[in-house]
Amino acid sequence: MELTFERGDQYRPKGHALVYFRVNNEPDTVYVTYIIALPVKADLTKYVPPFLATHLGSMPLNDFSAFAMPPVPEAVDSYEEVERLARLRDDDMAYADSMFSFDLPRMMEAVTEAVQVYSDLCDQYFNRESGNTVDSGETIGELPGSDTDDESSYQVNEVLFGLMSEADKLTELSRLLGKLRFAQDGEDANMLEEVSDEIKSLSKFLPDQFKLSRLLAAAQDTSRNGEKLAQLYLDRCFRLSSGDFGKVEAIDNEISSIELI
Fold it and tell me: Does the predicted model carry a pTM greater than 0.90?
């Protein structure tokens, strides 16, 4: 991700910025978050009780240097309002990304990326001004590497899946399978890998009897039988969730008949 500065200077960031996103099917709305890069790194382990710290997952409590609030961008009625606030508050203002429709997991992931990019810009500027050198492998506006992005995305998904009800998880599973099919049709290998990893992550939060590994294998099979099996396995998940075990048995028989072909 690259932040496009519309107020302020990416080479001289202020350390606080209004960052906005656009959604294609909501052309009159902008989604905004506020990013702060702290001038002093904070060790939150000093202030968080040990029993609570264990519930905060992989959050870097001992090296807390930048954050966004709200963590999911909030809708603002107009671009002009964001511009007005940035001017009055003397904030940096930057455009981050756009997406086709509002997608909560993607929005959270995008905010995480934006925080990382803005924090890196601040670090590079303040280190440069203090006489410290920046690692030769990094340039302004670039992230250190895609591994960090992938890990951030993975962590966001893990948190979201853990908060979802079983019904919500199955709805998300249906959405991911549709996304997987779209990637197959477009022969997009990167998206295929990304969606497959998301489904594997989601499977950790559903019972083994849902057989998500078999569902994923069927969904990755582009043959007619693969498509049919994937639909049956998905239907089986919903039937199990609703307690319709009679229908589950019938689906299992149909699956067996196809897998024997």
Answer: no
